[in-house]
Design brief:
single chain, alpha+beta, eight-stranded antiparallel barrel
Length: 110
């Protein structure tokens, strides 16, 4: 019986550790500003405090980023259209979710 109680005491923490949590606008700013995300396969992105963002996937690309209505938004020239995403976090992993429900995960790089 004692072993069963221990499993129940630990189980909720295990489940919670695997869940993503939606971030608010201020939390998105705090999580991303002056940070770098690694998307794997040599692809990464930085988020500067000046609201510039650098994306590298075989070559560099520069854009702007902002937080609007509790969403991460980015603008990549030559386009003048902002694309916005919901942002979730699970530990060191950030997940961007577009309006169609597609998700992209990045892990904080040191």
């Amino acid at each position: 019986m004692r072993r069963f109680a221990l499993i129940l005491a630990i189980w909720p923490g295990v489940l919670a550790a695997s869940e993503f949590r939606e971030l608010s606008g201020p939390e998105i700013l705090a999580a991303l500003t002056e940070r770098k995300l690694d998307y794997g396969g040599g692809v990464w992105q930085t988020f500067e405090g000046s609201m510039l963002t650098q994306y590298f996937s075989g070559g560099p690309s520069a854009g702007r980023w902002a937080v609007r209505d509790n969403r991460y938004c980015s603008l990549w020239p030559p386009s003048d259209l902002w694309a916005c995403y919901d942002v979730q976090q699970n530990g060191q992993t950030i997940r961007f979710i577009d309006d169609a429900g597609s998700a992209t995960d990045g892990v904080f790089a040191e």
